[in-house]
Here is the input.
Amino acid sequence: MARIDGRANDQLRPLELTPGIHKFAEGSCLVRCGNTVVICTASVEERTPPHVPEGEGWVTAEYSMLPRANRERSRRDISKLKLAPRSAEIQRLIGRALRACVDRKKLGERTVTIDCDVLQGDGGTRTASVTGGYVALSCALHNLVERGVLAELPLTTCVAAVSAGLVGDELLLDLCYEEDSAAQVDLNCVMNGAGELIELQATGEGRAFTVEEQRTLVDLCARGIREIQAIQRAALGG
Amino acid sequence: MARIDGRANDQLRPLELTPGIHKFAEGSCLVRCGNTVVICTASVEERTPPHVPEGEGWVTAEYSMLPRANRERSRRDISKLKLAPRSAEIQRLIGRALRACVDRKKLGERTVTIDCDVLQGDGGTRTASVTGGYVALSCALHNLVERGVLAELPLTTCVAAVSAGLVGDELLLDLCYEEDSAAQVDLNCVMNGAGELIELQATGEGRAFTVEEQRTLVDLCARGIREIQAIQRAALGG
Amino acid sequence: MARIDGRANDQLRPLELTPGIHKFAEGSCLVRCGNTVVICTASVEERTPPHVPEGEGWVTAEYSMLPRANRERSRRDISKLKLAPRSAEIQRLIGRALRACVDRKKLGERTVTIDCDVLQGDGGTRTASVTGGYVALSCALHNLVERGVLAELPLTTCVAAVSAGLVGDELLLDLCYEEDSAAQVDLNCVMNGAGELIELQATGEGRAFTVEEQRTLVDLCARGIREIQAIQRAALGG
Amino acid sequence: MARIDGRANDQLRPLELTPGIHKFAEGSCLVRCGNTVVICTASVEERTPPHVPEGEGWVTAEYSMLPRANRERSRRDISKLKLAPRSAEIQRLIGRALRACVDRKKLGERTVTIDCDVLQGDGGTRTASVTGGYVALSCALHNLVERGVLAELPLTTCVAAVSAGLVGDELLLDLCYEEDSAAQVDLNCVMNGAGELIELQATGEGRAFTVEEQRTLVDLCARGIREIQAIQRAALGG
Amino acid sequence: MARIDGRANDQLRPLELTPGIHKFAEGSCLVRCGNTVVICTASVEERTPPHVPEGEGWVTAEYSMLPRANRERSRRDISKLKLAPRSAEIQRLIGRALRACVDRKKLGERTVTIDCDVLQGDGGTRTASVTGGYVALSCALHNLVERGVLAELPLTTCVAAVSAGLVGDELLLDLCYEEDSAAQVDLNCVMNGAGELIELQATGEGRAFTVEEQRTLVDLCARGIREIQAIQRAALGG
Amino acid sequence: MARIDGRANDQLRPLELTPGIHKFAEGSCLVRCGNTVVICTASVEERTPPHVPEGEGWVTAEYSMLPRANRERSRRDISKLKLAPRSAEIQRLIGRALRACVDRKKLGERTVTIDCDVLQGDGGTRTASVTGGYVALSCALHNLVERGVLAELPLTTCVAAVSAGLVGDELLLDLCYEEDSAAQVDLNCVMNGAGELIELQATGEGRAFTVEEQRTLVDLCARGIREIQAIQRAALGG
Here is the structure.
């Protein structure tokens, strides 16, 4: 059974990472992953929230969809006076993922906020946000080193993410919107440069899944993430 | 290295499930899991939200902590005019988990809302909510059958959840608060009566983790969930 | 005319006060008053709100009903982004009542917050909250003395509350939900250990009432409060 | 000991009730009670809230203080996104008080909303709102009769309110702001045209009070309310 | 074609400015402009918002309509948890207009807040608020000089506002509600004592308008504002 | 005195209008105006808000800045639970401007919502939003005609906007951020295809301005708008 866009089951969508697209942000990256488009900016502020220990820094993320990112227009959060629960969940995931590659002591008492705003959503917006958010974060941290604010780059590894799922009986990598809507099982993986897991979320939307199936999906993601990390390195000029 | 409460690494905390503790709710269950205490009520309403297809029912969950559930008092959501993002994330998980055991066509055009209110929180409140929420839901559905509203019980399986984690180098089942705070890796599992996965969430708070470690943690959870499901069956009188 | 639960007109519902039911709170009390169940916790914080004079402490209360406390499920305040006006009114009453038994200079610059969360509501939740809130507060203040934080107990008296009403032509003490719904006149009384009034609220829901009727209702409450204060003393071990 | 404005202890402040001061509202009344100034408008809408039985009408009230009503400017509710709890409590009182003089069946399926906006607050704003709200309500109901919408006036009695309190050892009627701030005990009374009670609220802010003191304060209010009702009748041209 | 109230096309509505109508506010003015009634109060606070440079003061405005200001009752902002966007826009205009007549260095580190609350709205409420707000502000500043807080009056000019519009083919000054509703083009002008513009807002609600028409409308406003400034001077006793 | 970017005083910034950049929206346009970047999408819904007369359509706009659009990151509206007042004002302007070019009867009972989200803000975001919003709207309306939903294009004219200002003594067209911050007088103009005014807003931020200066600024805008309309026509392929 062919995929809607003709990809092989273990094939990623075309992924473009364009760093430096924002004139003002300390770091930025435009992510195009098939028809999903996310703008990620990294903003550095010289203070930390109260819960952060003295001498350490903080990395946090915010995620939002433009009202017409999807096939149907949605009302803005502010007109409902309520952060969409899905956005609340996703931005917590992005924040945890990006904190996993930063040495917070080396970062010092400053906060990097990664804003991930989805201009166009065609599935995989949370994983695209992690992948592009890492590039924006990396730019911002390099910028701090270049400007002499930091002596040393406080990055310990790289971070990327991708989804996989069970659609019918097929194991598919990097689901687009139609595939995601039809998926029985949906799994998101965040991994570091050593191929270790940082976050794993799997949901049996249509049916439960075996431990074996779960393992196969993680393996599929691991292969995809290696390709994505090569694209990240290329985008960052290394 | 002994655990703080003297348990073996693969040992659950004492778990008590007391169904029927609420005079008015169609279903209810008080969960005591070590020092974690959650009251779950299931409320049946004869209508469904707009997104639900005609002829089908809906199951949803809300999760909240009483302000003094924890070691420190927290402000109520309403005084901040903001649902705690952690609660938003958890109640979405509980809702997905409990929908996975219900035949929504057999339920018919009604909604069951599972309210999980944490009276005392000592780690594992989300998994205790799934476990107790299932009992409350089951009571409410049996009640609909007994009252003749439904001809047939719309349950397809049972659902339970537990956590496991890496603390230091130990693989521990069913983390209490102190263990959870110190965990390098934290994994939550929801499984059905066949031992299949419904939800899996794993986070490397302190360090990344290998695919192998992830598999071992899931296996540990699987064993715990089998014990929990026996306690659920006993509580439900079967 | 017999009461719905067979009580004499001037008879209280069975009242159980269980202090110390919360592992973390400095003071706590579970109140069961007939089918009304309220959990009261007292939390001590080492700071005061801005309006409190230097050198003095503060006592405040919050009141809320769990969504399924009643016969019908209600939406949570946070989903309406609005504190229920009835809760706003009741928690102001509880706060005033409990401040009336505390020597705020002896308490020193700290705040005791009494959270009253109604698990099950069958009438009289505000008076049960005052009665149980006093027990929780008393526990917390004793705890401060035992821990050596305070040299002297800053309690000046005890505080308890009860309702009475006119249902048909009967003067009834301690109304349950059905009686409260049918009441022509509803009166709530808070009194101290000397039998003096701290708060009095009377409402002619169904008809106006004479000054004479109001006096009789207060006398009825006064007798009930004496019994409640004996139960409070017993619960507090004195 | 002389009162701050030279009144006798049982003397009301000068009270002016000016009906018809609003060009658009169906009923209106400007209340000047000493330095307290409240504008009350009554708005008639041809619908009722969902909880009102078919065939019946509804009377409700909203109360608010202009930001500079008091000696110090306060922030508007909307800038805090929160109805002041004190306003929530007061508008519930006004609503109950005014419903007590209306035959809701005769009113038919319409809602009268009494808005009480305090332009200047010098104590007694809630009782002034009840007193003036009655005049605005009465105007609006007469207007419905004059316009032929109603065949019969749905008023069953009149309603007025006043405060009394214990300041030092003095029993004072109709407390102004300075007296209210210094009061040991503060009591508000709403009465109908037969001198019966509709609402009674008493608070021991500075000390507890005896049942005897409470009775004396109600008697003092009763005498004041008779005078106020004469002023209401005069204002309404009868 | 005669105007609804018989005025000439370039004739203002009767305008009454009554300063000093508020007992507590540092400055105040009641504006009656035809059937439009606005109460303006000026409140002085000895602090400034964070964005104001050290050594300077700030002038800001808030605008709101009482719920029954208009022909139909509106819901209060707080019940919608949302400042009406029209109010947001208008209060920004009033604030800018009034800052234009104050020397903020001479004012020193204090804030004057002008609250404009519309008691009755019959068109022209924003311009009436600017006109009356200036009088309230002027009173408050004189008051600061009289009390010796300021050595010198920090007013640099006076400020007044009026509307004009195209209704049918007529150029009309100072539109009332009916005219405003029917206007093709609506223009608001704020001018200083030298007849210079401070704010200009013109909207083609019903049709576009030529640059020539716009000029004529400004000229019409300029003549009206001269008259209004004479009334302001008279009201301020100069 | 040279402008910061070397333009002549009456010279526009480079303006790029790229229609059709959004895969899902019925109409869209990316606006680049110097360093200002705005994404405009037009969404068509087959319903109208309650205030719109039967048989007519509606055009409305929403405006927002991404949190890092500017030199400094701002908090999102939702985290403050408050639509930024500046955004409230601007989106009302954009909505009025775009309604001015649509025949609402020909549009029929549907709503077109123009979302203007500022990705990068360097001055002139409101005028760029009007200019690009028109292109997105035009695309969406053409789309309705092409799809046979509408028989006839309901556009009556085109709409574009630009700013001008007094900086020092210079009259400058199309202010960038630095110029806008330093401007004494700031004027925004919306005009139709006939060079007639639809909206005019002028503010004397730094000083008042003469009627003559205002006229000159409008003339300057008129010339700029003619150029912008040529770019719009080219972008729309005509």
